[in-house]
Design a protein that fits this description.
alpha+beta; 4-stranded mixed sheet; 10 helices
Length: 253
């Protein structure tokens, strides 16, 4: 939880012996990277997953959310599975990470096979909805899942695409209709100083400001409120304008 590495557990026993010199437990305590890994992967993880499965099994229905992304370590496609259900223990709707499966090819048939394998331990007849984003392959997967449901099981609810995509698209459409250049301005201002220590140093020395533009994502407009707010309220743009004018005069000279 604190982002410590497994290797940081090495020689932890010596630390405990100094902290608790009169403790027999601390005197015999031993820990290393391998032991910490085995304890978490083969001890704690199965316990937490079993507890989660037991909590999900007590509810009459659940929803599964999934998304695919590239795992940069294994260089394979990773399908992350999240469960949303009514937790009787917490007496509220809970959204919990459940499992990850790794893909080679990601056709609709592959997604369905790995999706079902990733839900191992849960009753599929309690699945009432699959939350997903908008690629066509996901819709084919949804149709395959819906066609494979037994007649006695509840039909999967079709609620359409993720609502955030519609909101992002609405902002993008409005931006294009207004013939604004907010996209280009925010993206270029971020890229101007990205990975350029020399430009950042000149900017700070010329303007006295250490505040820069934040990263702008054109296809995710809603989280960009903070990006636009920084350029307007904190007045980053006037500083950038001053920097560009100074740089232009320097080049002309």
């Amino acid at each position: 939880m604190s982002h410590h590495s497994f290797r940081s557990c090495t020689d932890m026993g010596q630390t405990f012996q100094l902290m608790f010199p009169d403790s027999l437990i601390a005197a015999k305590f031993a820990m290393c990277k391998t032991i910490a890994t085995y304890t978490i992967v083969h001890g704690l993880a199965p316990y937490f997953k079993e507890t989660l499965e037991h909590d999900i099994q007590k509810c009459p229905a659940y929803v599964v959310c999934f998304d695919e992304a590239l795992n940069k370590i294994s260089r394979r496609g990773q399908l992350g599975i999240v469960i949303r259900y009514w937790s009787t223990d917490a007496n509220q709707v809970a959204t919990r990470y459940f499992n990850s499966v790794f893909l080679g090819y990601a056709t609709a048939v592959d997604l369905k096979r790995h999706f079902i394998a990733g839900l191992s331990g849960l009753a599929l007849n309690k699945l009432i909805q699959v939350s997903m984003d908008g690629p066509s392959i996901n819709w084919k997967f949804f149709e395959a899942m819906r066609d494979s449901v037994d007649a006695a099981d509840p039909r999967l609810l079709e609620l359409g695409l993720c609502g955030l995509y519609a909101c992002h698209g609405a902002f993008q459409t409005g931006h294009k209709s207004a013939d604004w250049s907010v996209n280009e301005m925010l993206r270029n201002m971020y890229g101007l100083f990205k990975d350029s220590p020399a430009r950042r140093s000149d900017y700070i020395s010329q303007t006295g400001s250490t505040v820069f533009f934040k990263k702008f994502c054109q296809v995710r407009w809603l989280p960009n409120v903070e990006v636009a707010t920084r350029s307007i309220e904190i007045e980053v743009f006037p500083h950038v304008k001053k920097y560009l004018e100074t740089a232009k005069n320097f080049l002309v000279t």
